[in-house]
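This section describes the prediction task in plain terms. A model, or a person checking by hand, is given the sequence of a single protein chain and must write out its three-dimensional structure as a string of tokens. No templates, partner chains or ligands are provided. The sample shown here is typical of the held-out split.
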Amino acid sequence: MQQTNRPELVATCWLTAGAAAPLTADERSPERIEDRVRVAAEAGFTGFGLLHADLVTVRDTMGYSDFRQLLVDAGIQYLELEMLVDWFRDDSAGEASALVRRDLLNAAAQLPVRHVKAGGDFSGSPWPVEAMVAEFRTLCEQAADAGTRLGIEPIAFANIRTPADALRLVEDAGHPAGGMVLDVWHLGRLGLPMSVVQDVPVEAIVTTELDDAVDEVVGTLLEDTLNERRLPGEGTLDVVGFIRAVRATGYTGPWGLEIISHEHRAKPMAQGVHDAVRAALAQFALADEAAPQA
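The expected answer:
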């Protein structure tokens, strides 16, 4: 049976951030939060993403009460917050991560936060599995107490690289608030078939993300993911296959649009958002078509 309803979309944090770039000295968006929320709502998003740096700005300027009303007035139903890294460390990086964790979970207790995104070690360094599992379980407990879920994202250049890696962590932690974030970019850059997604239990999928990439990696994988992502359908990744594989699990949740690139940052913010929506909906239309007969 074909899917006919418009997919539920999340404007991930970088989609509306304008000229801001990840892992820079100042990651804060130059765009007004009121404009970001308005543009996302006008483009048909029901979910809205915020980076920790922008969340802190919102907290310290308008406050959470006024921000919550801004979301309600715009018809935005929930938030996605990111990005929690180094949560498994016991050094100075771990101390900094604990402060980010506090901010994200405090916000989740006061705002309609559907989920918080987390990642593994971007250097790919191995960490004791038992320690990571124990701390992830603690994170899940804290997320549940704040009324939200925690999604670990398999990242092509991190120590948690594949959906199988993420599922192992989630299952070993054994807490229902824990799950994973599935991004077609990371599967594609690892050369994984999109069918691997069908091995993930639907209850373990917190959210999904769409984007695209060309065949050639530009620079390192980290540089490529921060600067060269393409709109869905404008690269060579099997975005349609990813959508179909995720749907085959029974997943009916939201789809985030995460476009991070020099090209996206150079566009007027509203244009970049609307371009991404048009591109994504075209891929859903293809996925809705009947699969070819063997």
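For orientation: The two ends are 17 Å apart (CA to CA).
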